[in-house]
Design brief:
23 helices; single chain; Beta-Lactamase; VWFA domain-containing protein; six-stranded mixed beta sheet; Ca_channel_alpha-2/delta; 34 strands; seven-stranded antiparallel beta sheet; elongated; vWFA_dom_sf; 727 residues; voltage-gated calcium channel activity; VWF_A
Length: 727
């Protein structure tokens, strides 16, 4: 706790604020903190009034980076007053501690009040100060330590005030029937420039002289861009006095590779929490290596609601080991989850197996569906004419240039994502060299049959199964196709023309791949996106591939096949297939089942150079049609929570249920069979009379106010505690 008085001297105010912020910086996310400012009266820092108007005022907040930044802003807003009501400050501080005592059930926490002042008390009777301390600490079983600080020349020369502050720290008025009082210290800081150093060393008071095991720090974001990092530390003592700390830093990616990349079928996964129930790793959260902003520790109960309800999470927090079968489910993105939302796959029975990591406060849990299916490929054939994606390292006259890239025109190239390697983190950390590329090629082509332990053992088998895909592509070749590719769940992607990809690329995390999984057994059409060379917009058609002759939804996924077209080529296909769309009296568009416009006549109309194309929603482009769909319950909203950004997303889903077509006065909307898309045919405005509805489509779609659905700004914020979590 920090007790902060409003200091009359301007310079002391500035120094004291810096000292308070220094205290905040010394705290780790497991600590809890509150700030009380006092003058004539005392009040608790309000925190973030807009988002949490009462949270900080009514309880101590966890010292996570987000909360510390909020409290620092509160400190900056403190103003000046000459009175110093010690009693009010002490009473407010103890009430805040008392209100927070049962929030996490940790009775062993050190509890401390840091009391900072530059003036003598203006209380009518100083006895009330000591009574407030005794009464407050008695309620807390005398577990609160008080450290007092008097700053400036006034207190340095005022023995009476020094005696009061010393007595406050020593708690001279006490009731030890409920526990022994632990005396604190009083420190005079005459030179204000030393205040930050003096106050930030408060932790020495609580240091222990011996430790049985290393302390593993709460993970934090590395300043050099390594993602989440933890420190494994031991304090260094000399004659009972702490002299420093010896630590070893390790990236969480290195420590948690096996958990992060765990896969045993479509729905199996692993996660890790600490003993406070905070999530360290979970497939619904970003991987530790890609975290760039201050980490937000999400309670695992928000991500594993069924497991929490069944008591599994409480057992994990206690550090026990166990195994249990329960009904559960897992949430997956429908594409770009902030735009398209999520869907849940129910597992009738899933086995949760958990165990604590020895000598740590972390527990790992593995979740595997009881009736899940795992497939394997037995053959270990070599790959003839294998072309690795690093075309820049290969000298071959068959290479050519496409836009700004060197590509393989006549042969597809193969890219292997991090999950295809035995050490994924090493793969993405160290750049590929010609030597490593040559070794991969030699292994794939069978020129070096020695065990290649860098790649997982089944990778060559899977690539060999796809060795003949190029022959099929050649038989289906079409000038309208920009590229073809097939990606597997193992992180393999074969592309023609062959292209070089970034090492951090993972095909299984791309929106086109995720959309295909969300729309299994359907041809999935993705809304336009700019190609990486900014030469124009492309549209992707993708289809999930299952293991099994019947391609049932329950079959395990092998991968996804995709084709890219230019937006003009796709439009030409539409008007050729539906000639009506080329007539002036009609305007046609294609919409996906999230309500995004895949194709519209305006996309190829050169008269509108500012036409938004990427991420354009029907509620923006065709509000009257959206209004009709919403009113007739053909389009409904969904919600999900992005814990990384602390935002709720509202997304849409379009479903006709049993109808194949919807007709109104001004438009017709058809299901495109076996796809995720719909064809809209709209009469020109001069041929329609009146509107089907009077309701404003913009007000029906809270995420459509203004033009917020753009490629960089498509987020809409709401609060909904029942919403699913976003990937």
């Amino acid at each position: 706790m920090i007790r902060f008085q409003l200091l009359a001297n301007t310079n002391l105010i500035r120094v004291a604020k810096k000292a308070a912020k220094t205290i905040l910086d010394t705290l780790n996310p497991s600590d809890r903190i509150g700030i009380v400012e006092f003058s004539t009266k005392a009040s608790v820092a309000m925190g973030d009034i807009e988002r949490t108007p009462t949270c900080f005022k009514e309880q101590l907040a966890y010292a996570i980076p987000q909360n510390k930044e909020i409290l620092k802003r509160n400190v900056d807003k403190i103003t000046v007053d000459e009175n110093t009501n010690y009693t009010a400050a002490i009473e407010t501080a103890f009430n805040l501690l008392l209100d927070s005592i049962d929030l996490d059930g940790n009775e062993a926490r050190d509890k401390v009040i840091l009391f900072l002042t530059d003036g003598t008390p203006t209380d009518p009777n100083t006895t009330t100060i000591f009574e407030a301390i005794m009464n407050g600490n008695t309620k807390l079983k005398n577990k609160v330590v008080i450290l007092t600080y008097g700053i400036g020349s006034v207190i340095a020369k005022d023995e009476s005030t020094q005696q009061i502050l010393t007595a406050m720290a020593n708690q001279t008025m006490r009731d030890e029937t409920h526990g022994k009082v632990r005396e604190g210290t009083f420190t005079v800081v005459e030179d204000a420039s030393n205040l930050r150093q003096t106050m930030s060393s408060y932790y020495q008071y609580f240091s222990r002289s011996t430790y049985d095991s290393p302390i593993i720090a709460t993970p934090y974001v590395d300043a050099l861009g390594l993602g989440l990092v933890t420190s494994i530390c031991l304090p260094v003592h000399h004659k009972g006095i702490i002299k420093g700390v010896a630590c070893v830093d390790m990236t969480m990616s290195d420590l948690l590779t096996d958990i992060t990349y765990f896969s045993d079928g479509d729905q199996a996964y692993a996660f890790m929490i600490d003993n406070k129930g905070r999530t360290i790793v979970h497939p619904s959260l970003p991987r530790p290596s890609v975290v760039k902003n201050d980490i937000l520790f999400v309670p695992i109960s928000n991500l594993e609601r069924t497991a929490a309800k069944e008591g599994i999470i409480e057992e994990m927090k206690r550090g026990t080991s166990g195994k249990r079968i329960i009904e559960s489910g897992r949430v997956f993105p429908r594409g770009a989850s902030s735009m398209e939302g999520v869907y849940e796959v129910k597992m009738e029975k899933a086995e949760y197996s958990w165990e604590r990591i020895e000598r740590t406060n972390f527990t790992i849990c593995v979740v595997i569906p009881v009736n899940g299916t795992v497939f394997s490929i037995a053959n270990n054939d070599v790959v003839s004419g294998f072309v690795y994606h690093r075309t820049d390292l290969i000298q071959d006259p068959k290479m050519c240039r496409q836009y700004d890239s060197i590509v393989t025109k006549d042969m597809p190239s193969t890219f292997l994502a991090a999950k295809a390697f035995t050490n994924p983190i090493r793969f993405v950390t160290f750049p590929e060299t010609k030597s490593t590329v040559d070794k991969i090629i030699e292994y794939m082509e069978g020129k070096n049959e020695e065990p290649f332990d860098t790649l997982k053992e089944n990778i060559r088998s899977i690539v060999s199964v796809l060795d003949g895909i190029d022959s099929f592509w050649i038989s289906q070749d079409d000038e309208s196709t920009i590229r073809r590719y097939i990606a597997t769940s193992h992180g393999i992607i074969i592309t023609k023309p062959g292209v070089t990809r970034e090492q951090t690329y993972d095909p299984t995390e791309q929106p086109w791949y995720l959309r295909a999984l969300a729309n299994r057994k359907q041809l999935t059409i993705s809304f336009p996106h700019k190609d990486k060379h900014n030469k124009g917009y492309e549209i992707t058609l993708s289809k999930s591939l299952s293991v099994g002759r019947q391609h049932l939804i329950s079959d395990p996924v092998f991968g996804v096949a995709g084709i890219d077209f230019s937006i003009r080529q796709f439009y030409n296909f539409i008007i050729k297939r539906y000639p009506k769309c080329d007539e002036e009296r009609y305007s046609c568009f294609i919409m996906d089942n999230s309500g995004f416009i895949v194709m519209h006549r305006d996309f190829v109309n050169c008269s509108n150079k500012d036409q938004q194309i990427e991420g354009l929603h029907v509620t923006i482009k065709e509000p009257e049609i959206a209004k009709h769909l919403i009113k007739n319950y053909h389009m409904s909203r969904r919600a999900c929570i992005n814990f990384e950004k602390l935002k709720d997303y509202r997304t849409w889903i379009v479903d006709f249920i049993s109808a194949e077509m919807i007709r109104s006065k001004s438009f017709e909307l058809y299901k495109l069979r076996d796809t995720n898309a719909f064809l809209g045919v709209k009469l020109s405005t001069d041929e329609t009379t009146g509107s089907d509805d009077t309701e404003d489509a913009q007000s029906s779609c809270a995420c459509s106010k203004g033009n917020i659905y753009t490629s960089t700004n498509y987020e809409c914020q709401h609060e909904d505690e029942t919403a699913d979590k976003c990937e």
